[in-house]
Amino acid sequence: MQATATVLVYSDDAGTREQVRLVTGRRPAPDVPLVEFVECATPAAVMRELTKGGIDVCVLDGEAVPMGGMGLCRQIKDEIFDAPPVLLLMGRPQDAWLATWSRAEAAVTLPVEPVEFAGALASLLRQKRLQSA
Asked: If residue 26 lies in a helix (H) or strand (E), which one and from where to where?
Protein backbone atom coordinates (compact mmCIF):
# COMPACT_ATOMS: atom_id res chain seq x y z
CA MET A 1 0.00 0.00 0.00
CA GLN A 2 1.29 3.47 -0.85
CA ALA A 3 2.41 5.58 2.10
CA THR A 4 0.04 8.50 1.54
CA ALA A 5 -2.84 9.60 -0.65
CA THR A 6 -3.27 13.21 -1.71
CA VAL A 7 -6.78 14.62 -1.45
CA LEU A 8 -7.56 18.00 -3.00
CA VAL A 9 -10.30 19.90 -1.14
CA TYR A 10 -12.00 22.79 -2.95
CA SER A 11 -14.28 25.26 -1.20
CA ASP A 12 -14.36 29.03 -0.91
CA ASP A 13 -15.36 28.45 2.73
CA ALA A 14 -12.42 27.72 5.04
CA GLY A 15 -14.87 26.14 7.51
CA THR A 16 -15.99 23.57 4.94
CA ARG A 17 -12.37 22.71 4.10
CA GLU A 18 -11.66 22.32 7.82
CA GLN A 19 -14.74 20.13 8.29
CA VAL A 20 -13.49 17.79 5.52
CA ARG A 21 -10.05 17.57 7.14
CA LEU A 22 -11.50 16.89 10.60
CA VAL A 23 -13.94 14.16 9.56
CA THR A 24 -11.27 12.45 7.46
CA GLY A 25 -8.67 12.45 10.21
CA ARG A 26 -5.39 10.75 9.36
CA ARG A 27 -7.17 8.19 7.16
CA PRO A 28 -10.84 7.54 6.44
CA ALA A 29 -10.53 3.74 6.86
CA PRO A 30 -7.86 1.31 8.12
CA ASP A 31 -7.27 -0.25 4.68
CA VAL A 32 -6.44 2.99 2.83
CA PRO A 33 -3.29 5.13 3.01
CA LEU A 34 -2.76 8.10 5.27
CA VAL A 35 -4.20 11.27 3.73
CA GLU A 36 -2.41 14.50 2.89
CA PHE A 37 -4.55 17.48 1.92
CA VAL A 38 -4.14 20.14 -0.72
CA GLU A 39 -6.61 22.95 -0.09
CA CYS A 40 -7.88 25.25 -2.82
CA ALA A 41 -10.24 28.22 -2.49
CA THR A 42 -10.55 29.07 -6.22
CA PRO A 43 -11.25 27.10 -9.39
CA ALA A 44 -8.00 28.37 -10.92
CA ALA A 45 -6.03 26.92 -8.00
CA VAL A 46 -7.78 23.57 -8.47
CA MET A 47 -6.86 23.44 -12.15
CA ARG A 48 -3.23 24.38 -11.37
CA GLU A 49 -2.93 21.58 -8.81
CA LEU A 50 -4.53 19.01 -11.10
CA THR A 51 -2.24 20.02 -13.96
CA LYS A 52 0.77 19.37 -11.71
CA GLY A 53 -0.51 15.84 -11.05
CA GLY A 54 -0.26 13.70 -7.93
CA ILE A 55 -3.86 14.18 -6.75
CA ASP A 56 -5.57 10.90 -5.85
CA VAL A 57 -9.11 12.18 -5.08
CA CYS A 58 -10.85 15.57 -5.28
CA VAL A 59 -13.48 16.72 -2.78
CA LEU A 60 -15.42 19.60 -4.32
CA ASP A 61 -17.93 21.86 -2.58
CA GLY A 62 -21.04 22.08 -4.73
CA GLU A 63 -22.07 25.24 -2.88
CA ALA A 64 -18.79 27.13 -3.49
CA VAL A 65 -18.81 30.63 -4.98
CA PRO A 66 -18.16 31.88 -7.67
CA MET A 67 -18.01 28.42 -9.27
CA GLY A 68 -19.71 25.49 -7.63
CA GLY A 69 -18.10 22.09 -7.40
CA MET A 70 -20.57 20.55 -9.84
CA GLY A 71 -19.57 22.82 -12.72
CA LEU A 72 -15.92 22.53 -11.74
CA CYS A 73 -16.19 18.73 -11.67
CA ARG A 74 -17.57 18.69 -15.21
CA GLN A 75 -14.77 21.00 -16.35
CA ILE A 76 -12.17 18.72 -14.71
CA LYS A 77 -13.60 15.64 -16.41
CA ASP A 78 -13.55 17.47 -19.78
CA GLU A 79 -10.12 19.07 -19.51
CA ILE A 80 -7.85 16.93 -17.31
CA PHE A 81 -6.54 13.71 -18.84
CA ASP A 82 -7.02 10.77 -16.46
CA ALA A 83 -8.78 13.03 -13.94
CA PRO A 84 -8.91 11.77 -10.35
CA PRO A 85 -12.23 10.60 -8.91
CA VAL A 86 -14.42 13.30 -7.40
CA LEU A 87 -16.46 13.32 -4.20
CA LEU A 88 -19.01 16.11 -4.42
CA LEU A 89 -20.44 17.93 -1.39
CA MET A 90 -24.07 18.84 -2.16
CA GLY A 91 -26.36 21.25 -0.37
CA ARG A 92 -29.49 19.11 -0.82
CA PRO A 93 -30.13 15.42 -1.50
CA GLN A 94 -32.40 16.54 -4.36
CA ASP A 95 -29.27 17.71 -6.20
CA ALA A 96 -28.12 14.12 -6.79
CA TRP A 97 -29.08 14.41 -10.46
CA LEU A 98 -26.68 17.35 -10.80
CA ALA A 99 -23.91 15.25 -9.29
CA THR A 100 -24.60 12.69 -12.02
CA TRP A 101 -24.54 15.43 -14.66
CA SER A 102 -21.18 16.65 -13.33
CA ARG A 103 -19.76 13.09 -13.67
CA ALA A 104 -18.73 12.93 -10.00
CA GLU A 105 -18.01 9.39 -8.80
CA ALA A 106 -19.64 10.01 -5.40
CA ALA A 107 -21.68 12.63 -3.57
CA VAL A 108 -22.68 13.38 0.02
CA THR A 109 -24.77 16.17 1.50
CA LEU A 110 -23.67 19.09 3.63
CA PRO A 111 -23.18 19.38 6.51
CA VAL A 112 -20.74 16.50 6.27
CA GLU A 113 -21.88 13.40 8.16
CA PRO A 114 -18.62 11.75 9.32
CA VAL A 115 -19.41 8.07 8.71
CA GLU A 116 -21.03 8.65 5.30
CA PHE A 117 -18.22 10.96 4.16
CA ALA A 118 -15.41 8.69 5.38
CA GLY A 119 -17.04 5.71 3.67
CA ALA A 120 -17.37 7.54 0.35
CA LEU A 121 -13.81 8.89 0.47
CA ALA A 122 -12.35 5.51 1.43
CA SER A 123 -14.24 3.86 -1.44
CA LEU A 124 -12.77 6.33 -3.95
CA LEU A 125 -9.27 5.82 -2.54
CA ARG A 126 -9.68 2.04 -2.89
CA GLN A 127 -10.84 2.42 -6.49
CA LYS A 128 -7.89 4.68 -7.27
CA ARG A 129 -5.48 2.15 -5.74
CA LEU A 130 -6.97 -0.65 -7.87
CA GLN A 131 -6.68 1.46 -11.04
CA SER A 132 -3.04 2.26 -10.26
CA ALA A 133 -2.12 -1.39 -9.61
From this structure: none
Average pLDDT, the chain: 94
| Interval 48-74: pLDDT, tens | 999 999 999 999 999 999 999 999 999
Judge whether 65 and 12 are in contact, CB under 8 Å. Answer: yes
User: What is the C-alpha to C-alpha distance for residues 119 and 96, in angstroms, rounded to an integer?
Assistant: 17
Q: Which portions of the chain are predicted below pLDDT 70?
A: 1-2, 133
Burial 13-49 (b: 16+ CB within 10 A, else e): eeebbebbeebbeebbeeebbebeebbbbebeebbeb
- The end-to-end CA distance of the chain, in Å, is 10
